[in-house]
Amino acid sequence: MAVTGLGLGGPEQPLISVIIPTLNEAIHLPRTLAALAGAVEVEVIVVDGGSRDDSLALALAAGATTLVTGGGRGAQMNQGAAQARGELLLFLHGDTLVSPGFEYWIRHCLGQPGVVAGAFDLAIDGPGWGLRWVEWGVKQRSRWLQLPYGDQGLFLRADRFRCLGGFPALPIMEDVALVQQLRQRGRIARVPLSVLTSARRWQRLGVIRTTLINQIMVLGYSLGIPPSRLARWYGRL
User: Which end of the chain has fewer CB within 10 Å, C or N?
Assistant: First the structure.
């Protein structure tokens, strides 16, 4: 889905390829795609991992470029990047909505000296002080540690992504691994604009449990525990 419309930027702006990995995202995907409609000089690529629902049909109906591949989310995003025409890449989860003007901020951010990548602030689509606390913590982590996660909409230049070899072939933590590589090469900027993600993970397991699980996974990866073992633990938690 290559779309143009009113907004900041214009035809002379570098094309942004939005890459969306999906697996059974039929409930959320239509809103994700609708939020991208009207963006200036943007193409949308949906890479499906074998959905058993209508995810692929919905992506096709919306006019997105669609691909099907296996191997997990990292492999899906790498496949999408391999087909992307854009100079700039945005990796977006299938349950996450961009805010109007997101394309301006991506171009502006990646044009700054020393910036190798960027991500948005995180807003969670649900009520309650617990979710607001999570949002605040994500903002602080991104600001001070330069460690955004994939649900914040990670973006970077396509040539840099390919130079790094894309997302590592890991069953889990592929976004953290890529961000750690990027941090060694420059600054990862936090854009003053939010993406809105589904609250389903926090609602299913609870805010405290979900946060603890996430932190255990990151700590385990930092301590050198094999991602294959982390993925088995994650599946049982």
Answer: C
**What backbone torsions phi and psi does residue 235 show, to the nearest 5 degrees?**
-70, -20
Does domain 2-203 correspond to CATH entry 3.10.20.740?
no
3-state secondary structure of 229: helix
Upper half-sphere CA count for residue 218 (Cβ side, 13 Å): 15
Using DSSP's 3-state secondary structure scheme, residue 153 falls into coil
Written as one letter, the residue type at 54 is D
Q: Which residues contact 125 (CB under 8 A, 6 or more apart)?
A: 196, 197, 198, 199
Three-state DSSP at 190 gives strand
The structure tokens listed for 43 are: 């193409």
Q: Copy the structure tokens of residue 93.
A: 């989860």
CA-CA distances (angstroms) from residue 31 to 18, 130, 160, 236? 15, 24, 30, 30
What does pTM read for this prediction? 0.93
Domain boundaries, the chain: 2-203
Other beta carbons within 10 angstroms of residue 163's beta carbon come to 10
Q: Where are the alpha helices (DSSP H) in 53-171?
A: 55-61, 73-83, 102-110, 129-140, 158-163
Q: What is the pLDDT of residues 140-172, one digit of tens each?
A: 999 999 999 999 999 999 999 999 999 999 999
